[in-house]
Structure formats: C-alpha cells, structure tokens
Write a structure and sequence with these properties.
- By secondary structure, this protein is of the alpha/beta class.
- It has 20 helices and 8 strands.
- An 8-stranded mixed sheet has the order 3-2-4-1-5-6-7-8, with helices on both faces.
- Helix 3 packs antiparallel against helix 5 and helix 6 (about 115-125) runs parallel beside helix 7.
- It has 3 domains: about 5-85, SRP54, nucleotide-binding domain (Four Helix Bundle (Hemerythrin (Met), subunit A), Up-down Bundle); about 100-290, Rossmann fold, CATH 3.40.50.300; about 310-483, Orthogonal Bundle (434 Repressor (Amino-terminal Domain)), CATH 1.10.260.30.
- It has helices at about 5-15, 25-40, 45-60, 60-65, 70-85, 115-125, 145-155, 165-180, 195-210, 225-235, 255-265, 285-290, 300-310, 310-320, 330-340, 345-350, 365-380, 380-385, 395-405, 405-430; strands at about 100-105, 130-135, 155-160, 185-190, 215-220, 240-245, 270, 280.
- The protein is about 50% helix and about 10% strand.
C-alpha cells in the first residue's frame, strides 16, 4: 500500500543525499515533492500542511543545514515527524483490562469486521489466550453463520445462542466466558452502509451491557478519507479506543493511515495485510515509517519467520548448510515455508535496501513463478532431489515434460540452485558481511529458513550485506524462471 508513497519519498531525498551543504532552495524543493506525495496518497490536507510546516521549521535550522551530513539530518527530521503523526501509543489491545476482557468490533458494513474478528481471535490464541467470539449482527443474512465458519478456521469457539436479540447475545457470551474460563470475548457488531441513529442506539446498548475495555473501529483502508470521517463519528457517539486498518495490502494510496491519529484522535491498534487469518499485525509506527522511507523492517520479518518455522527443522537445515548438504527437497520445503509468511513482494519491503526491487517489474516475484519451480522439483525422483548432479540431459527432458515446463527452465533452475548453495553455505558458516548484529542472528539461529528469500540470487553473496543488488539479466535476482 505504501509502495508509491515510499518511492516518492526516496526520490525527494535523492537530491539531498551527498550534498556537503544544503540551501533553502534545495530543502524547499524536497518539501514540495513530499507535500505532493502526501496529498496524492490521500492524506488529509490539513494534516499535510501542519506536517510540512513542522518539517520546514526543523529542517531550516542552521545546525541541520551546516551539519556534516545535512541530507541525512533532513531525512531524520521527516522520520521523526512521521512518527509524531502516528502518535506515541503502541498498537495492540490495552494493557490493563478486567478478565474476561471484552473487545467490541465497530464499523460500517463491508469494512471487514467479521473477518477481522476471526483474525483477532487467531492472534490472541497465538498469545496464549482463550477467546470466545459472538455475532450480534442479526439483520445481515448469514452474518452469524459467517462468523461461525471464520471461528472454526481460527480454531476458536463461537457462542451461538437461540435468541436473536443483539444485547442478549453479547451479555450471554460474557456470562458464558465467565462460566467456562474464556479470558476474552470478541463481539462482532452489526454495520450499516451509513451511520444512523438506530445503529448507534444498538451499539450503545451493547456497550452498556458488556462494558468493553477495547472498542476497535474496523476501517477499510481502500476507502481513504471516508473511513476516517466515519471513524470520527463513531468515536464521538460511541467511543473508540483504537482503529484496525484492513486491506493494507491493496492498491490504495495509504493516506488514511497517516490521518487517523490527527483527525480521529485515537491510535491505530492493528493492520490487516492479507486474506489469511494470520494476516493481522500489531501496529508499530516505527516499523511502518522505516518501510515508507525504504529502511526495511527486519523485526517484523523475523517475527513472521518465527511463526512459520519449526525449531527442529531449522536446526536440521542449519546442520545441512554447514555441511553443504542442502538439497532440492530442502529447497522445496523452504519455498513452502516462505509462502506461508505472506506475499514475497511484502517480504522484500521488510529487507533494508531491497524495497527498490519491487519497482523492477520484470524481476517482480509472483506466485506463478514459485508454482512452476515447485512443479519442476516435484517432477524429479527422490534420488534426483537428493543429488541434483544425477540429472543428465534425458532426465531434464523427462522433468520438463512432467512439470509442463521447458528444458531451458529446468536448466536455469538447476544452475541457479547450484549457485545458491554457495551463498547458503556462506550463510551457514557465519553469515554474509553486514548481517552480523541483526536480532535473532547467530550464524543462522533465529533466521533459519530465511536465506531462501533471495532464492534466485546468482553470482555469489552480495558484498554489502543488505545493500540492494544491481539489476541482473534473465530471470532477475528474485525469479528462478523467466516469464
């Protein structure tokens, strides 16, 4: 979602980098680009004006203009002010709440409340909690059944009484939680296509009955400023403690996220970045700002890796890497692991210096490429997957025919796999230059399973750690198979 905004920011900073001394004209030119980028991203115009004024006041300071690295100082000012836009409050649920905690999900119809309720339940379960979900949307057809299906997928219990009174359903769920030991109740409320008095009266009655500690407004990030206006109205009439931005992986311009705190006055609690139940993240302002400025987000990358990587498998893989015994079977397993972490395009943005690769259309990774790679490997015999050197010309023809690809594609995969083994062996024996000191890195510890992110990185290890590699020829650094 922030790809376009991130690109515009980095373009604006290019003119400042490397300058020994900055002039007022140069700073104003960069601020003009930043202003246009924010307005085009659908950030509230009043928020943009106040933001640019604060950045200008700090950037025009003589200590900044005459510093040894004025360009970096201006970037730091922009980073600090972006963080100020998001507020100082960290995302997630409130720290202090009675047991059982009650979370009320608010929002207009179609914003994703029901799906987000399931995602939140799944997130709480990963935290060791025992949530109970209940739907109070008795008007929308199949709304209650939809929540039951989502809850089943999330492996949590859905409270389903016979009564169709919204307040009674919410109160009954709270009583059920107290009686059976559930520590969290998630109440999925009804929505409308617009805000009306009947909806607000119903929400206020539910609020009075269950006394929620968290009132989360679920906003569709793709609706832009309309979502922010609705959130402000809900906050005024019912009270909102946090905002959940859904569809953050869409092609919307992203300005809604930058306007929430300033316009509504409540922090962003969670962001949804995909359709899977695992695709709900606690909102970390510093991490989002780092991604926007092209600095990556290694901490989120590690957290995603830890959720999908089995520790025993990671230790086995580390041992294989140290002994240079990494096989095509292991490679296929790692591809599946990476796919469970989410779209490759999103993962690229979390690696410092790699965000720019997403702009290279011909090198852009996609699911079809990975499917073809898996098909080629699956068409091999177990012996061929264990020892790729057995694959001669006739075997390559058989593999290509069995996988529906060409011999050229099979040859390219095998060549790049051989080159990748060299890179992975270096990682297994102590890491590439520039990777020491990252959280979770001790040789491969904590990040085992991640080296295959650059699964087609031919030509050996990059010399600058996470510095963005130069554009390569056929297939690109992230594509094993040429489109």
């Amino acid at each position: 979602m922030f790809d376009s905004l991130s690109t515009r920011f980095q373009d604006a900073f290019k003119s400042l980098r490397g300058e020994v001394r900055l002039t007022d004209v140069q700073v104003e030119a960069a601020l003009r680009e930043i202003r246009m980028a924010l307005l085009e991203a659908d950030v509230n115009f009043k928020v943009v004006k106040a933001f640019i004024d604060r950045v200008r006041d700090r950037a025009m300071d003589q200590e900044v203009l005459r510093s040894l690295s004025p360009g970096q100082q201006v970037i730091k000012v922009v980073r600090d002010e972006l963080l100020a836009l998001f507020g100082e409050t960290e995302g997630g649920l409130r720290k202090d709440a009675p047991t059982p905690r009650v979370v009320l999900m608010l929002g207009l119809q179609g914003s994703g409340k029901t799906t987000t309720s399931g995602k939140l339940a799944r997130w709480l379960k990963r935290q060791g909690r025992h949530p109970l979900v209940v739907s109070t949307d008795v008007r929308r057809p199949a709304a209650i059944q939809q929540l039951s299906i989502v809850a089943e997928k999330a492996e949590v219990k859905a409270y389903a009484p016979e009564t169709m009174d919204p307040v009674a359903r919410a109160a009954g769920a709270l009583a059920e939680a107290k009686a059976k030991g559930f520590d969290t109740v998630i109440v999925d409320t009804a929505g409308r296509l617009h805000i009306d008095d009947e909806l607000m009266d119903e929400l206020q009655a539910i609020k009075a009955a269950v006394q929620p500690s968290d009132l989360l407004y679920v906003a569709d990030a793709m609706t832009g400023q309309d979502a922010i206006k609705s959130a402000g109205e809900f906050n005024r009439r019912v009270g909102v403690t946090g905002v959940v931005l859904t569809k953050l992986d869409g092609d919307a311009r992203g300005g809604a996220a930058l306007s929430v705190v300033s316009v509504v006055g409540v922090p962003i609690a969670f962001v949804g970045s995909g359709e899977r139940l695992e695709d709900l993240e606690v909102f970390h302002p510093d991490r989002i700002v780092s991604r926007m400025l092209g600095m990556g987000d290694v901490l989120s990358l590690i957290e995603k890796a830890e959720q999908v990587i089995d520790k025993d498998e990671a230790q086995d893989l580390e041992e294989k890497l140290r002994k240079n015994q990494f096989t095509l079977d292991d490679f296929r397993t790692q591809l599946k692991t990476i796919r469970r972490m989410g779209p490759l395009e999103n993962l690229l943005g979390m690696i410092p210096g790699m965000g720019g690769l997403k702009q290279l259309a011909e090198n852009k990774p996609d699911e079809k490429q990975m499917n073809r790679v898996e098909a080629i490997i699956s068409s091999m015999t177990p012996g061929e997957r264990r020892d790729h050197t057995l694959i001669n010309g006739s075997r390559r023809k058989r593999i290509a025919k069995g996988s529906g690809t060409s011999v050229e594609e099979v040859n390219r995969l095998l060549k790049q796999f051989t080159e990748m083994r060299k890179v992975l062996q270096m990682l297994g024996q102590g890491g590439l230059p520039g990777m020491k000191g990252l959280p979770g890195m001790k040789g491969m510890g904590g990040m085992t399973g991640m080296p295959n992110l650059p699964h087609g990185a031919p030509g050996g290890a990059p010399s600058g750690g996470f510095a963005a590699p130069k554009k390569r020829k056929k297939g690109g650094p992230w594509g094993l198979i040429k489109r």
